[in-house]
């Protein structure tokens, strides 16, 4: 889940009228504050607690009194690297996640070795936990514990695994934020997840039990196409079908109103390799001295020419015949909503939030349409030969490989896309180029007229967070708002349509969304806001939003419950 929230674009603060507002309360047994975190920061938005049960308010008081400890919990987790692409920390991290739910008092916690996955690679362990609170309803909570590598350490304002607290100006975001945590995994996704865990723990500490039962599933391969999770879910569906719904992690959006998450775009990864051995020209055994380029063909230059045959001169439009076939048209009502939303978008601010000079288009409507319903054929990386920056050392590589992520939407199909890429390569004289599928995460849709989605909406209203209903059941904008779309393994769990005909999903209603804010997923200076400002809540407010969602879900009874864990 790539989810997710880049830089702050604050909405002018307005207070709620005619409601009982949440006030800071002293707790006699409050611990000694080491970090000095202000649970309310500089927030102008307030929580309407007038109709909340007493148990919920007790949990709020506990959060206020223990917010320093809760931030330290997040710091300790970020200080443990968990990089699935390199394997760093991938033995220690599942043990750490299991320990969280042992500490929460879950009756069953286990680390599952999934073995070799359907894509031929070993998957990382999946952590599974059951917390039976004797409640009628059960939530399945999805986590990922893996993060992306750190590719540009020199660009970080603090070491990526230190979890340092800095101010907003130092973090490069709105200076109104006085405390921001910098670290790899801060928003994707340890910050939102630890926010959830802290909320669960606060409810139990204040009231003795949660209002719902929990089933927790935490994967270590989300940045590797969730290959291990695919193996676990398809092998153990009965463990998950006992849940009534799934709750995703989330956070507030920096560039526009909040949204209900749950749907997903499709995302597949391929590798293309050009080698002298397969081509029958150039170096065939290994890299050779660059002096021989004067008389020898270059697989590297051939690879560049091959890539040029797949993309237009604009660098954006695939030249693969039929690539855009099968895209589901946008319905008129959704298109109208896009036009309305476009009128409220500041593209300059949105571009600054993402960290780009400008978007492909200067038209807000076109940008939103591309972001939510468009496709992409990206060049994520390329390697081979002399990979050392600066210096010298003449090399004529014998093999070059490039990695590509392809984002696709309903009703596109990854198998069909793969065949069309192969056909394009063959027709352009590149039959020798190896095409390898690394992994696939099909698109999925979601019906948001559900108890769990309404629980998130009710929280947004009580917390004074502006939100918009989903544009459609298949929109990807709601999956990862300020990252302009997003992919996560929703196809394994959804009760809606999904893009893999070979997979039978668990069939659960899904929703996500909360207070709190972070950004720069996959980038330098990834952050999670600790003290809020204006209409953006800090970590304490984010934890309270999770508390509220659990109580809302426990009391929303449109659909009969499955009568708890047995």
The helix count comes to 15
Overall body shape = globular
Major β-sheet annotation: 6 strands, mixed
**What is the fold named in CATH at topology level of the domain at 42-251 and 443-555?**
Aminopeptidase
Question: How are the SSEs placed, and which strands pair?
Answer:
Elements: E1 42-43, H1 54-65, H2 67-78, H3 92-103, E2 108-112, E3 126-131, E4 138-144, E5 164-166, H4 168-171, E6 180-182, H5 186-207, E7 213-219, H6 227-235, H7 237-240, E8 245-248, E9 258-259, E10 266-275, H8 276-279, E11 288-289, H9 299-308, H10 332-342, H11 347-354, H12 364-373, E12 376-383, E13 395-396, E14 399-408, H13 414-427, E15 434-441, H14 451-462, E16 467-468, E17 510-512, E18 518-519, E19 527-529, E20 533-534, H15 539-555
Parallel strand pairs: 1-20, 4-7, 4-8, 8-17, 9-16
Antiparallel strand pairs: 2-3, 3-7, 5-6, 6-19, 10-14, 10-15, 11-13, 12-14, 18-19
GO molecular function: metal ion binding; peptidase activity
Keywords: Hydrolase, Metal-binding, Protease
Protein name: Acetylornithine deacetylase/Succinyl-diaminopimelate desuccinylase
Descriptive account of the structure:
The chain is α/β, with parallel strands linked by helices. The chain has a domain at 42-251 and 443-555: Aminopeptidase (3-Layer(aba) Sandwich), CATH 3.40.630. The chain is built from 15 helices and 20 strands. It is globular and about 80 Å long. The two termini are 30 Å apart.
